[in-house]
Amino acid sequence: MITREEIRKTANEIGLDLVGFTHAGELERIREILEERERCGYLSGMEPGSRDDRICPGLHLEDVKSIIAVGLSYKFPPGGCEKQGDCPKGVLSGFAVGEDYHRVIESRLEQLALYIKSRIKGFRYSIMVDTGPLVDREVAYRAGIGWYGKNCSIICPGFGSGILLGEMLTNIELEPDTPGSGECGACTLCIDTCPTGALIAPYTLNAKKCISYLTQMRGIVPRELRPKMGTSIYGCDRCQQACPHNRDTISFKDRDNAIDLIELLQMDKREFNKKFGTRSLAWRGLNVLKRNAVIALGNFKKEEGLDILASISKHPSPMLRAHAAWAVGRIGGSRAVRILQNMLDCEKDADVRSEAELSLKEVRERRIT
Question: In the chain, which stretches have pLDDT less than 50?
Fold first, then answer.
């Protein structure tokens, strides 16, 4: 036999900050929420599996009886750090700093599984960390790890919302914890702070407008949302930085969350893999992050950025050329006009031409007024 206390103690010793237990029944409470968000088009499209896959633990482990939910705390930088200084630096979310948290949590859950296996004959399990089908936040809520804030993040006493989540489905019976409890009261700071209006109402997120999603999506970022991304390269912490529950949890002593935009834009795949290959941001690939760096340069509005943007305007990727045309136009000035005109003289891709034409028009209109 094994007790919950023994599992919790071992998990803490392994380096998992929060541990909770819940039964393996369906996550029925959020079925209607998922259905509604699907109808409204609020899902990002990155969610793995069908709706049933996301709420039915029994589809992922035969004879599943309990789920062990875990949380690993992380820190994020104080709000406004992206505006400090004149150097072209982009910002990484706190969760993207350091080794890929998927690997870290999965490794620690595997260690926990080995411990339980040494105590329980016939122990079987399945581990999920973020990329698994189950809704991690609902599992964490039901296991008592925390409660939902209005920004849809799980808020944990003593840790705020800076928590990375994972779970282990098991075939052993463990007494469930009481679901998380807490409230935001009348506070709407997270909603008020969101630059894109992705938090359309308390507890309701349009994922397709979330900056964290925009930095990870493939292809062309909607033109109207690019200025609101600021200098975000991967992820976004703004709603968490605004949350009063995080006032005692925000701590970033180094500048490891800052990334040199020019260096990133000049990297090849080998250099990228060497520097960032073990981080969570590496999965999305170099060109998507370069696209975000191009947007960040445009939002800096510094004429010095035109040198590298002129180079990117000739990049083999139409996606990068399109965003470069936008960024050049956002910086503006006589040199920007020349770069955009040169693009139009030789560009054949319709989307890139459209971006360059619109940017050129905007630059000329600003010069007139």
Answer: 81-84, 255
Cross-strand partners of 333: none
Give pLDDT tens digits for 168-179: 999 999 999 999
Q: Read off the pLDDT of residues 275-314 as tens digits, 9 standing for 90 and up.
A: 999 999 998 899 999 999 999 999 999 999 999 999 999 9
- Whether 130 is catalytic is yes
Catalytic residue, candidates 52, 63, 100, 130: 130
